[in-house]
Structures are given as C-alpha cells and as structure tokens.
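ok new one. same drill as before - structure tokens go in, u give me an amino acid for every spot. 316 of them this time. try not to just spam alanines like last time pls lmao
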C-alpha cells in the first residue's frame, strides 16, 4: 500500500507501507525529512466520515493514527492520501518539532504581545502558537483579531488563565456555562460579566464565591436570599452580610456566622438581632468597636460592656 502525505497545495512525501510496526514513527520521520525547518504540523484524516485532527506535537495521540493506518492497510484501497496542516514558527528559527512546545513555554510577554499585535496569523495555520500565548498571558486575548475572539477553544483558554477576560466575550459566550464556570473558577469577580441567566445558576455562583467571596455582589438577587450561598460568603468575609436579603439579615444563624467572622457585620443585622445578646456579645468579642451597632439597651449590658473593655484593653 502506498500512502501519500500532502498539504492542501503540495506533496510532502510518499511512503510505501509493507508492515505496520512503528508506523507512527516512520510517518513522522518521513515528514520531518521532507519539510523545511521551523515547522510543526497536524495530521488530518477521515474516519467514519469525520475529519480527525491528530496533533503530533501536543496531544501525542498516536493510537488514533495507528488504528487509522491499520484500517486502511487492511482495506482493498491501494493508495491513500493523508493531509497535514503545516504551522510555521513565528521567528523561523531552525528547531526540532518537539522543541516547539518549549519555544511556546519560554516566549516572553513582550514577544507574545508583539506577535499578537502583528495580526499576521490565523487559527488554522497558527493554532498552537495562539493557544500557547493565550495560555501564558490570557489578557492578550483582547488584542486578537475579532474572528479569533469568536472561537470557543481560544476563549476557554483565555478565561482559564484570566477570568476577567469574560468582559470581552460575546453575549453568546457570557451565556455559555462551560466558559463562565472556567472564568469564575479563575477569578470569582468574573461573575460580574456572566449573563443574567448564569448569575442565577447556583453552581456558578458558589464556584465564584469560593474563589472570591466578594463575588456575591454580582449574584442574582434571588440567590442573595439563599442560605447556602450567603453562609459560604460570610464565613469567608462576614461584612458581606451587607448583600444578604432582609430575610437573611434577620436570620440568627446567618448573622451569628457573620459577626463571628467580623464583628462590624452587626451593622447590617436586623434591628431585632441587634437586640439579641448572644449575637451582640459574639460581635463585640470579635471586634470591640461593634458595640457601637448594638441596641441601646445592650450598650448598657454589663457583660457586653466588660467584654468590649477587656478586648480593647488587651489589644493596646
């Protein structure tokens, strides 16, 4: 069987296959001998009427290619064409294909910025260069060509590296749960740029809050009345009781958790709970200045006043 390996415009090499041993290595070696220095490549082949890309460099998924070659080797077809996409190194230096990954890993921010601003690239021919740069420096996403900003694979890499890039995503992607989840997992405040629908999504909001409790500010109002959501936030930052619904600001468990974390959260408690001795005492023990927010009668309570005085004395 003869295997022809072409790009879309030129023949790269021709291999006659008499046996299948080490076929992946033999194919790659033959290609390396034929193409000019400074190029990496991706295989394209058809299997079950679908085009499959086999990335030689990064995925190293030779099993699919070997299975494919075995199938056509055992078929009655005598000649088969395997296409490749060639990718040029940006600086055109002579490196081995394996070194391409290291080339991407060691590009400086300045060089990456220069490459992105040059606009002399396309996703089809420079896929791994672009993804490598965005993986290193997600903020460079904002300088990409508009057509590249609409490619989900690129945006997913960008928001995983820098969640606030979600601000520059299209409305469609701001409503894409996979994209938004990756963004808030990197930076909770990216929740600010999620669609209204996803600001109502409990999984996304919890992920955002666990990453940055202040993200509760951007949750949909209905979730600010959710006990699980608010407990998660105030256990990390009690002062966020400010964002809780009125009902939760009057919830003993919620307010107690808030003042134990930050005594001054008492300021946002309901008037009823400002008259609750247990709540006020815990607030004052955490921060003596919280006494200012207690009800008038509890400001005169001997035990509470003593706790505040002792705490202030020992903190001097």
């Amino acid at each position: 069987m003869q295997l022809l390996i072409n790009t879309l415009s030129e023949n790269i090499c021709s291999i006659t296959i008499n046996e299948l041993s080490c076929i992946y290595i033999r194919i790659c070696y033959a290609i390396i001998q034929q193409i000019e220095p400074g190029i990496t490549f991706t295989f394209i082949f058809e299997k079950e009427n679908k085009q499959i890309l086999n990335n030689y460099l990064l995925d190293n998924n030779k099993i699919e290619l070997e299975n494919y070659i075995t199938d056509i080797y055992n078929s009655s077809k005598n000649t088969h064409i395997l296409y490749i996409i060639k990718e040029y190194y940006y600086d055109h230096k002579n490196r081995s294909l394996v070194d391409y990954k290291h080339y991407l890993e060691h590009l400086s921010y300045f060089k990456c910025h220069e490459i992105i601003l040059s606009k002399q690239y396309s996703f089809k021919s420079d896929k791994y260069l672009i993804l490598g740069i965005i993986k290193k420096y997600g903020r460079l996403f904002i300088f990409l060509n508009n057509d590249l900003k609409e490619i989900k694979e690129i945006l997913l890499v960008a928001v995983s590296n820098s969640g606030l890039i979600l601000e520059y995503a299209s409305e469609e992607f701001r409503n894409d749960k996979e994209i938004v989840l990756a963004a808030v997992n990197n930076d909770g405040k990216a929740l600010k740029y999620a669609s209204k629908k996803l600001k109502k999504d409990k999984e996304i909001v919890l992920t955002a809050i666990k990453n940055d409790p202040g993200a509760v500010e951007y949750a949909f109002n209905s979730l600010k009345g959710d006990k699980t959501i608010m407990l998660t936030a105030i256990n990390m930052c009690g002062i966020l009781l400010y964002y809780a619904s009125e009902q939760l600001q009057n919830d003993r468990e919620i307010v107690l958790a808030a003042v134990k974390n930050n005594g001054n959260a008492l300021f946002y408690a309901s008037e009823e709970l400002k008259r609750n001795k247990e709540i006020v005492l815990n607030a004052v023990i955490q921060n003596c200045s919280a006494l200012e927010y207690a009800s008038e009668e509890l400001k005169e309570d001997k035990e509470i006043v003593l706790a505040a005085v002792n705490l202030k004395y020992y903190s001097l």
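The chain has three domains: 2-88, 107-211, 220-316. and btw The CA atoms of residues 240 and 309 lie 26 Å apart.
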